[in-house]
Amino acid sequence: MNFERPNIKTMKGYKPGEQTEGSGIIKLNTNENPYPASPAVAATLKNLDAENLRRYPPPLADSFREAAAKLHNVNENNIIPTNGGDELLRLAITTFVDPNEKILVTQPSYSLYPVLTSIQGGILIQIPLQQDWSMPSDFEVSLTSSGAKMCILVNPHAPTGKLLDTDYLARLADSFQGILLIDEAYVDFVDPDFQYNSVSLIESNENILILRSLSKGYSLAGLRFGYGIGPQHLLEPMLYKTRDSYNTNTVAQHLATAAIESADYAHSTWDRVRKSRSVLTDGLNQMGLNTVPSQANFVLCQVPNSISAKGLYEGLKRQNILVRYFDQDRLKDRLRISVGSDTENTALLEAIHSLIKT
Amino acid sequence: MNFERPNIKTMKGYKPGEQTEGSGIIKLNTNENPYPASPAVAATLKNLDAENLRRYPPPLADSFREAAAKLHNVNENNIIPTNGGDELLRLAITTFVDPNEKILVTQPSYSLYPVLTSIQGGILIQIPLQQDWSMPSDFEVSLTSSGAKMCILVNPHAPTGKLLDTDYLARLADSFQGILLIDEAYVDFVDPDFQYNSVSLIESNENILILRSLSKGYSLAGLRFGYGIGPQHLLEPMLYKTRDSYNTNTVAQHLATAAIESADYAHSTWDRVRKSRSVLTDGLNQMGLNTVPSQANFVLCQVPNSISAKGLYEGLKRQNILVRYFDQDRLKDRLRISVGSDTENTALLEAIHSLIKT
Questions:
Q1: Which domain holds residue B220?
Q2: Predicted ipTM?
Q3: How far apart are the first and last CA of chain B?
Q4: Residues A82 and A189 occupy one common structural domain
Q5: Do B222 and A54 touch (CB under 8 A)?
Q6: Chains A, B: CB contacts under 8 A, how many?
Q7: Does A22 lie at the interface with B, CB-CB under 8 angstroms?
Q8: The pTM of the whole model exceeds 0.90
Q9: Which of A50, A54, A86 shows the shortest C-beta gap to B244?
Q10: How many helices (H) and strands (E) does chain B have?
């Protein structure tokens, strides 16, 4: 007997990148920060008492909201803490998109969006990016005429690392009748010279919802902590109606608060990642694995036909180096490689060099 | 502009019991265990390294699944770890109940069920319990003829603490065409003499899904860890399709595993709670606050009209003692009181005594 709803029965689940606990593996497949979390996080963890866990956590993670509001110079009511950024995506869809309403995304993009749309019974509209992975020139028109209830854009884009600027997003939000959800999981790695700042838009745009994550920028993928920034009227139904009442645990609340209160430390890791990204990009380009200029902590490169992306992925894996291969349209000839430490990046480049020579 | 789905716009959210971080408060309102978690949990927490948090957690919490499977003598495929028991409820509804399908619960019951039903756009059927809070004699008939896709029973029942026996649940599952979700958040406090054992039913009943929680029995409400036990065909779509891919964090996985691997320690706290429950029950009865015989770690008592339940709740609160008052049909003359430590229970009884005298 099968009890699944028809849409669940026919859908395919999201497939996370390989996670491994083995040592000696160079793991460049799921975009973790190569540097440790802030010492303040380690100190907070060390001082935690198990007795704190006997009671329920503050349902709204008040201390974190306060710290995040301060960090972004917004009101606490503009912050919703979530169990990873993925929870915010799910909550937003649950709250705002009725079954049979439309969600518009670009193609390619984060492959969880179609999965969450299927779960909700929504209709997915995928707009293909141009050949160079930039937005189609008529995207704004496509969006406004789509009748979509929500548009989700990951910025910097995954899996290419391309950045849309603040003005472009403001224009989209202005003309769009639905909610523009900007998934900024990788925003911490954007070069400050771009002066990217979407948070400033939430004051004037009542339809912008921003996703932030501590997984990459704050070296806390294992903690599952993300948050949304947005106008109060968008956050309130998620905070008080659709969210599981105790969605983040006590440990995560304490550590996440310590992390963003010591954001200066994380900033220093972002600088290092940006420098390493540049070296990695050059190294790949020099070997003929052409890259897309990336503002994230990963690089998408094209693999020569002679070896094939899948072949290179497998060859690297045999050498205990994990990178991400997407078996999907337009990405079959590419690899997405997380920016690791300098040692890891050098080992990767050397391994690629030896594999494409043979 | 309001973007909420119509069902979200009109619904009311779940209101969790007051959480307080102040000291000197006797907190008997949200059913936490009065005794600390196992020393193994504290030791595991002490040994955790923040560096473990840099990477994503094992998506399926493999170590926990293994430990839970061993504890319940089932296969790992019969276990789904969740971010609190509440997540299992949400996942089950998301996965199996289409909008406009029916969910049947008793009235009263855990007030989150109606909230989750509203979010999914399902139809709620509430079957009133009898005057003595037992199941109506025709419940089985009502259930089978309801056309419900899912029936959720909390057992022991909240907020009364009454226990349904294993045979009764087996009969219900046999005749019911939908999924019988047995919410066993409080099952650890059941007297072993009852030989209650619903887990044995999942081998022969393909429509039983059991919810377990570490919040009460294992003194870990702050950790947000629960799990489901059920036949593989019910768990798989939740594990691989509808669940957020990294739904439990690394810290929670480690601590939850330590907790159930040292379940003997938790058992000792359950014994103490059962003994205290008996003393608390007697004390309340002696003052004329008639109780329902409870197999949970709380007691529902009726408050004489002379003072009123709400009045007593407020009077206790002024003395820094928190209990739970439900402003809803059939419960307005009652208080639900968590079983605390012996000191806390004595203080509560003395406070009630002084309040009902005046």
A1: 39-261
A2: 0.96
A3: 52
A4: yes
A5: yes
A6: 231
A7: no
A8: yes
A9: A86
A10: 12, 11
